Amino acid sequence: MESASLEISPEELHRRLQAGDDLQLIDVREPEEYDYCHLPGSHLLPLGELTRRAEEIRQDGPVVVICHHGVRSGQAAGYLRHRLGRTNVLNLRGGVAAWAEQVDAAFPTY
Hints:
Elements: E1 7-8, H1 10-18, E2 24-27, H2 31-36, E3 43-44, H3 50-53, E4 63-66, H4 71-82, E5 89-92, H5 95-102
Parallel strand pairs: 1-5, 2-3, 2-4, 4-5
C-alpha cells in the first residue's frame, strides 16, 4: 500500500483482513445502520460522537474508517488527520455498499 494513499479499497481491506493484519475498524454510521449490517470486528462510533470519543481510536497501527458509501467515513478520517494529527487512518472507499458489491455478495445492503 502506498503511504500517500488516504483510502483503502474493499478488495485491499479484504486481503489485509484475510492475511490477519492488525487493523482497527471504526464504523461511523448510526446504531440502526450498524445493527442491520457491519463488518465483523468493527467498532461502532457514530460520526456525531467522534469528537468526544476519539480516544477510543488507537494512535498506532492502521485504522480503517467505515460508513455506508464512504462520505461520512471520509469526514471522520479528515477530522482525525487534520484536527488530531493522526497519520494511521484510512477511509474505506465506497463504504459497506462497495464491500457488498466487490467483496461479499451476501453482505446485506440498504
